[in-house]
């Protein structure tokens, strides 16, 4: 305790005397902690917001999904229940139209409520000028979602048609989630016309009387209703907690990268501090101090300086949470109040403290193992360092990393995950550092250093290679993270845009409602007459299960993995006309489909089921079984267009099979320049009850929005890693500034000019930035190539612009850091520098 | 009674193939409360001998005893304890820690030896006549003042032996005299055993006994 108190008491003088080193520690930790704190504060605030308002989100204490028709018992129960207030909510899936322009339409979910009771908790979030009261006063009043209001170009107090039923727009609901882009919402108390559209779902919402336990109430309800349809707000809350926790943990792990990189910076400074305290350490040993005591004093002081960094980082992170809603607005449109709680502060502080200790103990321990005799050695006291004990170092690392891992595990709710993450990160970091040191040395051996400045820069880089490696690692990691996300985003989107623009690929997909919708023939007739359509086809899709292969029973449980088992049990067969396939199949083996009794299967599906060309397959469809010969494999992934089925057979082959297992699809391709959405609007205008249809372009836009939000967030975290790299680099320059100062003075004394000094610095910065950018960008390209090829199965396109921009960004950043560091050195008189020496 | 004793002490430094024998066959006995000066020309091995006596370095041959304990084979942790309990050091270049105040420099050995006593540190600062400089950092003190702080630091754990290595080497004559007087008074009034390494024969002459070292041998 006395040692700790002594270390703390003498800390201010230590910080004052070595403010630059202290500043580097503070910055290294502040950047890393800011990244972690921003994520942690935001995710915790979001979690507490969602769980704290769960009753408002759910709308009740208990929700009961009601069957199409209630039994007498169920009806009696609901009518006579004594649990609390009950209200019914019905959702209808329909299409809404602008009555003045039926081409302006959109699928909607019409929610029929009792406005006198609904909502049971909270209030409906409405835009300015809206009137919830109107729902009570007027039977046809409606509140509509903002997306519907915009897409149909509606006006307040105007009509909106749902099927043929008119509603009056009396208010606009605030958008709270992204998928609204596909489906609008309407709240009203009058149900839309029956038989038009489908009744999606019916619920009973219950607000329990004071003091009633939701679990006990649920048990009572379960006597009359199926368990899957009854849920309490407590269950919803725990589901939200679990999901938010998983997402938060992923983001936290990503944000930890900058903190751990910052740790490398702390390690550099710790090494310099303890190296410069060699004689002090020797003196302390002369007066009875032991290695462990001296290590403890230095580490405590570094940790306390680190705590300042943690505080700064926390405040910075808190401030940055103001940026996150903007970055994530396309994913989370709720207005989440940001409230950093003391628990988050405690967790983040401990995390920062552990990182500081983890990364500073070994370098400090190395230099406090000085023999006390060093007190007599003014020249090179490092010769009196005791040899490093590998076992001690190993045990210290295991102990500290173990503690750190356990702590991370506590935050992640999985001790094992924390331990694995910590050790994997440390091992990977050590390997990466080793490789980078090797690359630096290899680059320094290249025969390119001919001029004197180049030779001087080479020598300087050699001397600092250990510390520089950490900066290069952090810089390359940061730029790699930023660039990689950008590559993947660009490649995936360009692949999807390619699909959208490919005239051979359908861009309209519609599921035709065969029970309530128009006959398929009417739709076919419409498509034939519409001049905007390039091509179209309808297709019957059957759900079957693979039962027999070559007269032997196929057992799905013996499949290589669960995916194969599911594929075998829910095997989709499309009924197609070989002369007019809905999409062009890219055959990779065997023959194309050309006659009845044949089947062609997507290559990956076939391989995972272990099928080969020539196999005779027995497939069950309801109570029927058909036999088909496997004649060809096509590759889904190469063309990417077959999003419909895992196999094709002729229409005749599938004739007469159990109809309840088949669904009718429409695929169409519009002519160049015509959007799918435009045609879908016309189709809906003509057949409001046709079923669900979507435009590929719309889907891509939604995907683009969501992907961009995720990318922005990941790049935001990547910038922290980049900042850590720059701080470590700046730190390395500051820590070795005395060398640069002496070198500059010597160059000048020997007749060198400012230009020569700048040339040396440019060489150093050039080599460092090329190395950092080169390693980072190469790594990102390779990883992107691997992900594209083996995970996404799309082509990798070398992105010249992004690569160049990333390269220039690193070059400029490193040069700027170098220029700032060199500025005062350039303005010092050589004689005063040498005199001070 | 002997408090320090060496038997056939020798030290040889190796630098690659080259071997330099710095000390050989040193047999030395220093009694409790004795003031011994080790004198000799520069490079004669005086400081090496002091380092071996303090257990700062391991001898190549021979043994060193502090009291009854043979220290040449002790592990570093035991040596640290013995140094903390038995020895006080005064160096030519003071070796005060620049980021600690005068008082904190004096307190340091007590903290490392787990016996913190700020009052004692103040008393010692008073003893060396620097109580008014307790909050000053070494850079704010003169050479003589720094050395007096160093002496107070050497005394703070009340060790029976003070090893002073050229304590006047960086001081002017007035301050040198003050320091030597202080050491003498510690010897006479507090019965401390003083081993003073010096090449100044005037100061050496003030000791009870002078051990001359020449070319690594006692002459």
Task: Describe the SSE topology.
The complex is a heterodimer of chains A (837) and B (219).
Chain A: H1 2-9, H2 11-17, H3 19-52, H4 54-58, E1 62-66, H5 72-80, E2 84-98, E3 101-112, H6 133-137, E4 141-145, H7 146-151, E5 159-162, E6 165-173, E7 184-188, E8 198-208, H8 214-222, E9 230-232, H9 233-276, H10 278-286, H11 291-320, H12 324-327, H13 342-368, H14 390-412, H15 415-444, H16 452-463, H17 465-501, E10 508-512, H18 520-529, E11 533-549, E12 552-553, H19 562-569, E13 571-576, E14 587-590, E15 598-602, H20 603-609, E16 616-621, E17 624-634, H21 636-639, E18 647-650, E19 662-670, H22 676-686, E20 691-695, H23 696-735, H24 737-749, H25 754-792, H26 800-826, H27 830-836
Parallel strand pairs in A: 3-7, 4-6, 13-18, 15-17
Antiparallel strand pairs in A: 1-8, 1-9, 2-3, 2-5, 2-8, 4-7, 5-6, 10-19, 10-20, 11-12, 11-13, 11-16, 11-19, 14-17, 15-18, 16-17
Helix pairs in contact in A: 1-11, 2-3, 3-9, 3-11, 3-13, 3-23, 9-11, 9-13, 9-17, 9-23, 11-13, 13-14, 14-15, 15-17, 16-25, 17-23, 17-25, 17-26, 23-26, 24-26, 24-27, 25-26
Chain B: E1 2-15, E2 18-31, E3 35-39, H1 46-53, E4 61-66, E5 69-70, H2 76-86, E6 87-90, H3 102-112, H4 118-127, H5 143-155, E7 161-165, H6 173-190, E8 193-198, H7 201-204, E9 209-214, E10 217-218
Parallel strand pairs in B: 3-8, 3-9, 6-7, 7-8
Antiparallel strand pairs in B: 1-2, 1-4, 4-5, 9-10
Helix pairs in contact in B: 3-4, 3-5, 4-5, 5-6
**What low-confidence regions of chain A span 5 or more consecutive residues with pLDDT below 50?**
638-643
Strand percentage of chain B: 25-35%
Query: What Rg of chain A, in angstroms, do the CA atoms define?
Result: 34 Å
Q: What is the percentage of strand-forming residues of chain A?
A: 15-25%
Dominant shape of chain A: globular
- Roughly how many Å is the radius of gyration of chain B? 17 Å
Protein chain pair with the most extensive contact, residues per chain? A-B, 26 and 35 residues
Number of strands of chain A: 20
Gap from first CA to last CA of chain B: 23 Å
Query: N-to-C terminal Cα separation of chain A, in Å?
Result: 39 Å
Chain oligomer state: heterodimer
Order of helices and strands of chain B: EEEHEEHEHHHEHEHEE
**Structural class per helix/strand content of chain B?**
alpha/beta
């Amino acid at each position: 305790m006395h040692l700790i108190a002594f270390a703390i008491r003498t800390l201010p003088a230590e910080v004052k005397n070595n403010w630059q080193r202290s500043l580097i520690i503070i910055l290294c930790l502040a950047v890393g902690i800011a990244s972690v704190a921003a994520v942690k504060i935001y995710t915790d605030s979001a979690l507490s917001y969602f769980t704290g308002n769960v009753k408002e989100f759910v709308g009740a204490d208990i929700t009961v999904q009601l069957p199409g028709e209630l039994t007498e018992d169920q009806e009696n129960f609901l009518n006579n229940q004594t649990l609390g207030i009950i209200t019914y909510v019905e959702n209808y899936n329909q299409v809404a139209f602008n009555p003045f322009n039926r081409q302006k339409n959109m699928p909607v979910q019409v929610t029929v409520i009792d406005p006198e009771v609904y909502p049971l908790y909270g209030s409906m979030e409405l835009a300015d000028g809206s009137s919830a009261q109107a729902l009570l006063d007027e039977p046809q009043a409606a509140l509509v979602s903002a997306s519907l209001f915009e897409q149909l170009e509606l006006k307040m107090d105007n009509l909106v048609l749902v099927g043929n039923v008119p509603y009056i727009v009396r208010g606009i609901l605030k958008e709270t989630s992204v998928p609204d882009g596909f489906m609008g919402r309407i709240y009203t108390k009058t149900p839309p016309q029956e038989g038009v559209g489908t009744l999606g779902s019916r619920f009973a919402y219950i607000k329990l009387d004071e003091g009633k336990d939701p679990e006990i109430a649920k048990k009572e309800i379960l006597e009359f209703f199926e368990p899957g349809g009854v849920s309490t707000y407590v269950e919803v809350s725990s589901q939200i907690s679990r999901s938010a926790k998983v997402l938060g943990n992923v983001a936290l792990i990503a944000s930890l990268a900058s903190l751990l990189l910052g740790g490398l910076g702390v390690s550099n400074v710790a090494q310099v501090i303890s190296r410069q305290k060699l004689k002090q350490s020797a003196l302390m040993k002369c007066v009875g101090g032991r290695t462990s005591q001296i290590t403890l004093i230095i580490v405590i002081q570094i940790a306390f300086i680190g705590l300042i960094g943690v505080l700064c980082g926390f405040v910075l992170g808190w401030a940055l949470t103001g940026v996150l809603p903007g970055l994530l607005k396309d994913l989370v449109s709720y207005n989440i109040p940001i409230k950093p709680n003391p628990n988050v502060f405690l967790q983040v502080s401990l995390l920062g403290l552990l990182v500081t200790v983890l990364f500073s103990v070994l370098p400090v321990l190395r230099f406090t193992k000085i023999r006390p005799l060093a007190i007599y050695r003014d020249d090179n006291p490092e010769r009196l360092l005791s040899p490093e004990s590998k076992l001690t170092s190993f045990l210290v690392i295991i102990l500290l990393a173990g503690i750190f891992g356990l702590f991370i595990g506590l935050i992640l709710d999985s001790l094992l995950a924390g331990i694995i993450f910590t050790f994997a990160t440390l091992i990977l970091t050590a390997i990466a550092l080793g490789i980078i040191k090797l690359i630096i040395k290899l680059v320094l051996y290249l025969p390119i250093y001919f001029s004197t400045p180049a030779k001087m820069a080479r020598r300087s880089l050699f001397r600092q290679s250990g510390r520089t490696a950490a900066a290069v690692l952090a810089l390359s990691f940061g730029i790699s993270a930023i660039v990689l996300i950008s590559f993947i985003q660009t490649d995936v989107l360009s692949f999807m845009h390619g699909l959208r623009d490919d005239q051979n690929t359908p861009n309209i997909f519609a599921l035709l409602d065969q029970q309530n919708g128009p006959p398929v023939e009417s739709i076919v007739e419409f498509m034939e007459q519409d001049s905007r359509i390039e091509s179209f086809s309808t297709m019957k899709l059957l759900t079957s299960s693979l039962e027999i292969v070559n007269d032997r029973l196929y057992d799905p449980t013996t499949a290589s993995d669960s995916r194969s088992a599911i594929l075998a049990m829910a095997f989709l067969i499309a009924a197609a006309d070989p002369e007019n396939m809905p999409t062009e199949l890219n055959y990779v083996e065997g023959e194309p489909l050309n006659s009845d009794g044949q089947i062609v299967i997507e290559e990956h599906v076939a391989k995972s089921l272990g099928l080969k060309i020539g196999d005779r397959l027995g497939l069950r469809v309801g109570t029927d079984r058909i036999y088909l010969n496997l004649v060809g494999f096509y590759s889904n992934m190469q063309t990417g267009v077959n999003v419909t089925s895992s196999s094709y057979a002729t229409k005749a082959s599938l004739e007469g099979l159990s109809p309840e297992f088949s669904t009718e699809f429409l695929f169409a391709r519009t002519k160049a320049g015509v959007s799918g959405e435009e045609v879908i609007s016309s189709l809906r205008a003509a057949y409001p009850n046709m079923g669900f249809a979507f435009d590929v372009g719309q889907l891509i836009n939604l995907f683009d929005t969501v992907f961009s939000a995720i990318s922005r967030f990941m790049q935001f975290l990547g910038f922290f890693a980049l900042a850590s790299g720059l701080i470590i680099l700046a730190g390395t320059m500051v820590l070795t500034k005395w060398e640069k100062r002496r070198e500059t003075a010597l160059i000048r004394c020997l007749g060198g000019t400012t230009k020569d000094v700048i040339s040396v610095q440019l060489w150093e910065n050039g080599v460092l930035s090329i190395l950092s950018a080169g390693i980072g960008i190469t790594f990102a390209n390779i990883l992107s190539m691997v992900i594209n090829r083996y995970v996404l199965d799309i082509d990798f396109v070398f992105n010249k612009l992004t690569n160049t921009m990333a390269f220039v960004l690193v070059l400029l950043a490193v040069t700027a850091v170098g220029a700032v560091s060199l500025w005062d050195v350039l303005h010092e008189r050589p004689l005063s520098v040498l005199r001070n020496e | 009674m002997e408090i320090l004793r060496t038997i056939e002490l020798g030290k040889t430094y190796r630098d690659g193939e080259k071997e330099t024998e710095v000390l050989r066959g040193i047999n030395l006995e220093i009694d409790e409360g004795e003031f011994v000066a080790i004198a000799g020309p520069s490079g004669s091995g005086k400081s090496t001998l002091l380092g071996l006596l303090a257990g700062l370095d391991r001898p190549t041959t021979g043994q060193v005893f502090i009291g009854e304990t043979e220290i040449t084979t002790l592990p570093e942790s035991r040596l640290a304890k013995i140094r903390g309990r038995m020895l006080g050091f005064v160096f030519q270049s003071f070796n005060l820690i620049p980021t600690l105040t005068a008082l904190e420099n004096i307190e340091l050995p007590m903290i490392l030896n787990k016996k913190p006593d700020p009052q004692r540190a103040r008393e010692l600062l008073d003893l060396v006549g620097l109580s008014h400089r307790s909050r000053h950092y070494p850079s704010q003190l003169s050479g003589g003042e720094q050395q007096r702080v160093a002496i107070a630091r050497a005394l703070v754990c009340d060790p029976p032996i003070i090893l002073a290595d050229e304590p006047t080497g960086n001081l002017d004559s007035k301050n040198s005299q003050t320091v030597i007087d202080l050491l003498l008074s510690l010897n006479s009034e507090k019965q401390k055993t003083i081993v003073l390494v010096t090449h100044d024969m005037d100061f050496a002459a003030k000791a009870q006994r002078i051990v001359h070292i020449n070319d690594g041998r006692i002459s």
